[in-house]
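Whiteboard transcription, Tuesday session. T.W. wrote the C-alpha cells on the left side:
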C-alpha cells in the first residue's frame, strides 16, 4: 500500500513523524478541557505556527517553506490521526491560495512574510450567508466603491475562527445581480484587515454548536475598507474562490483520513483487549468485520486523496478527484467513527475515551465545507454527463 501511495506523489514521512511528535504535547485531556469550555486551542495553534507548518504553502521568497499541497495534507492527516483537531487553523492553508494566485505583489509583500512569521493570522473565510447556503452566487453582502474605499454591508454565517484571526478573505457583490449577464459575475474578493474594522462597522458573534469549532456570524454595517483590499480584478471573485475550493476539499479529506485511522486504531486496540465471556471481543467476526471494512474504506479513500493532491500540485484539472477524495474520506471517517463507538459500547460515550468528541467532530464533514449530496450532484453532472439537478 505504501508503494501504491508513492505512485501518487511523496508521502512525506519526515513531516508526518515530526507532526506526530508535536501532537504528543497535546493529549486527549488538553482537548477535553477545551471542549468543555468551548475554548480556542491557542497553545496548539502557536506550536504549529512556530514549527512552520501553517506556512508550508507560502513560497520561500516570502518566508515560507514553498512546499506543495501534499505536504500540507500530510500535516493535517497526522494532526487528526493523533486525536487533535486541525480545524482551529486549517483555513490558513487553503485560503492562502487566493492571495498567492491572484493577489498583487504589493499585497504579497505586505502580508505573506507576516503570516509566515506568525505575526498575522489568515484564518477567517467570509463566504456563506444565511440566505444563500451553498448557492454562493446568491450572496447579498455588498461592497460599493466610494472613491479610494469600499463600503461593505451585509452578513456572513459559519465564519469560523473570525474571533481568532487578524485577516479575513471576504467575498462580496460589487455589481448587482440584475446587472450582470451571468450570476457568477459581479462578485469580488477582499483581504479584510479585521484589526482595523472591529467597532467600526464589523461585529462578530459566536455561534454555539455541538462541536468546539469557534464559528461565528459576522455583520458588516457600512464598514469602510481601503480600495487596495481588493484581490485581483473586480467582478472575478467567484472564479478566484473556485480556484481554491479543490485545495480545501483535498485538505479536509486528509483530515478525515486522519480521523478514520485514529478511530480504527482505537477500535482494534480495544477489541483486542476487552474480554467478555472469557475471550477478547475482537475474536468475534461480528466485531472484526466492521473494523476491517472501515480499514479497507479508509485505505481506498487515502489513495484518492493522494491522487487528487498530486494532480493539484502538477497543475492539472483535479475537480473530480478533489470532490471524490472529500466524499470518500468523509464517508470513511464516519464509518470508522460509528464502528469505533459501537466496538466500545457504553464506554464510547464516556468523555475520557475521546471517542464521543471525535465522533462529533468528524460528523461535520458530511456537511462541510460542502455537503456530500452536492458532491454527488457535481459528479453526476460534470463527470457522468447527467442533467443538472438544481
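and on the right, the sequence the group agreed on:
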Amino acid at each position: 500500500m505504501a508503494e501504491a501511495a508513492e505512485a501518487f506523489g511523496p508521502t512525506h514521512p519526515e513531516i508526518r513523524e515530526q507532526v506526530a511528535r508535536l501532537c504528543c504535547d497535546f493529549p486527549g485531556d488538553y482537548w477535553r478541557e477545551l471542549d468543555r469550555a468551548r475554548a480556542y486551542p491557542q497553545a496548539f495553534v502557536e506550536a504549529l505556527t512556530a514549527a512552520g507548518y501553517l506556512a508550508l504553502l507560502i513560497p520561500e521568497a516570502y518566508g515560507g517553506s514553498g512546499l506543495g499541497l501534499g505536504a500540507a495534507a500530510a500535516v493535517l492527516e497526522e494532526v487528526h490521526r493523533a486525536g487533535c483537531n486541525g480545524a482551529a487553523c486549517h483555513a490558513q492553508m487553503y485560503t492562502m491560495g487566493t492571495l498567492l494566485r491572484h493577489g498583487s505583489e504589493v499585497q504579497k509583500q505586505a502580508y505573506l512574510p507576516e503570516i509566515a512569521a506568525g505575526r498575522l493570522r489568515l484564518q477567517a473565510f467570509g463566504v456563506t450567508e444565511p440566505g444563500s447556503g451553498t448557492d454562493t452566487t446568491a450572496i447579498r453582502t455588498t461592497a460599493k466603491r466610494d472613491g479610494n474605499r469600499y463600503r461593505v454591508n451585509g452578513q456572513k454565517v459559519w465564519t469560523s475562527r473570525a474571533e481568532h484571526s487578524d485577516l479575513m478573505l471576504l467575498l462580496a457583490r460589487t455589481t448587482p445581480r440584475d446587472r450582470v449577464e451571468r450570476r457568477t459575475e459581479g462578485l469580488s474578493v477582499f483581504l479584510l484587515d479585521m484589526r482595523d474594522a472591529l467597532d467600526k462597522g464589523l461585529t462578530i458573534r459566536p455561534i454555539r454548536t455541538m462541536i468546539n469549532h469557534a464559528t461565528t456570524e459576522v455583520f458588516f454595517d457600512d464598514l469602510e475598507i481601503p480600495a487596495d483590499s481588493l484581490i485581483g480584478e473586480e467582478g472575478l471573485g467567484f472564479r478566484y474562490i473556485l480556484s481554491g475550493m479543490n485545495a480545501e476539499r483535498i485538505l479536509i479529506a486528509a483530515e478525515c483520513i486522519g480521523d478514520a485511522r485514529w478511530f480504527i486504531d482505537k477500535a482494534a486496540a480495544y477489541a483486542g483487549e476487552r474480554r467478555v465471556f472469557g475471550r477478547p471481543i475482537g475474536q468475534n467476526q461480528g466485531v472484526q468485520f466492521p473494523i476491517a471494512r472501515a480499514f479497507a474504506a479508509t485505505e481506498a479513500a487515502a489513495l484518492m486523496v493522494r491522487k487528487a493532491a498530486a494532480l493539484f500540485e502538477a497543475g492539472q484539472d483535479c475537480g473530480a478527484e478533489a470532490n471524490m477524495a472529500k466524499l470518500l474520506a468523509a464517508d470513511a471517517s464516519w464509518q470508522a467513527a460509528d464502528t469505533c463507538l459501537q466496538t466500545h459500547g457504553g464506554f464510547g460515550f464516556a468523555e475520557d475515551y475521546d471517542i464521543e468528541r471525535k465522533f462529533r467532530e468528524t460528523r461535520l464533514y458530511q456537511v462541510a465545507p460542502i455537503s456530500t449530496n452536492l458532491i454527488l450532484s457535481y459528479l453526476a453532472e460534470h463527470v457522468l454527463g447527467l442533467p443538472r439537478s438544481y
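Someone added at the bottom: The mean pLDDT is 94.
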